[in-house]
Protein: 4-hydroxy-tetrahydrodipicolinate reductase
Organism: Amphritea balenae
Amino acid sequence: MRVAVTGAAGRMGKTNIEAIQAADGVQLGAAIVEASSSLIGADAGEVAGVGKLGVAIVGSLEEVVADFDVLIDFTAPQATLANLELCAANGKAMVIGTTGLSEAERAELNSFGERMPLVFASNMSVGVNLCFKLLAQAAKALGDDYDVEIIEAHHHHKVDSPSGTALSMGEAVAGALGRDLRQCAVYGREGQIGARTQQEIGFATIRAGDVVGDHTVLFATEGERIEITHKASSRMTFAKGAVRAAGWLADKSNGLYDMQDVLSLRD
Ligand SMILES: NC(=O)C1=CN([C@@H]2O[C@H](COP(=O)(O)OP(=O)(O)OC[C@H]3O[C@@H](n4cnc5c(N)ncnc54)[C@H](OP(=O)(O)O)[C@@H]3O)[C@@H](O)[C@H]2O)C=CC1
Ligand SMILES: O=C(O)C1=N[C@H](C(=O)O)C[C@H](O)C1
């Protein structure tokens, strides 16, 4: 299977190329950066730090559309939507890890499932996807008596908040408790805000240094606290998941899938 990588000079783009290089049955077909990048023409493997791969970086996805079967895209919302349109029009599949999409952007992304096979997940790691299951189970068992707070920490370059993973964790808990996250989420607190309401799910964000990605969901009541924590120590955990998803898509028909499908974790 030939895999293309957009955002090829970004943190995840480089790690995705490294993971493709290390995996069996997949090869790098194309590497794409922004049209203004000084890296156009450079070898994608050398930029990713894995040695020469013989794939020259290009500045437009359209230029290399014949060179891949699946695109792995970890970029930014508007870039991802443009790449979806091009892939759908050319019969390509996509694995998308981009976070920070607005509700309207998310609805637009979802609609592409009718036109192409597509895996979209806020977090590609096995551990986080298992946590989604554990969180739903914990929320069901604990019910409304436990306050739920979600705390996430990431590196100082991250541009969206809260993280996509924190939001997915919120959705997993809210769904299990029969709540709508859009109604009960509280993003940060300051000033004379009054006592906490029972139904709210609070989000707290830390941005510091080189933290790859830490997420904790805290369930607290009078007399006890339960914390479910995931800590990523290497971006390779996300990249391995993305490459696994690309391989998984090989025989899939059109549809919107996520890592629960890829990892056979869906009930
Ligand atoms: N689902 C998951 O498991 C994970 C998701 N992520 C998400 O992936 C995304 C990327 O993260 P990260 O790699 O750290 O970010 P980086 O900023 O390091 O990389 C993003 C890349 O996308 C490119 N890009 C941005 N905007 C455009 C555009 N309009 N057109 C073309 N290319 C564009 C950038 O190019 P340039 O540098 O030239 O601007 C850059 O190379 C984020 O949304 C992040 O939250 C991250 C880790 C795991
Ligand atoms: O930007 C990151 O780095 C990460 N983003 C994803 C998110 O927003 O949840 C996944 C991971 O936590 C790393």
User: Anything to note?
Assistant: The chain has a mean pLDDT of 98. Residues 218 and 227 are 5 Å apart (CA to CA). The chain has two domains: 2-120+235-262, 126-232.
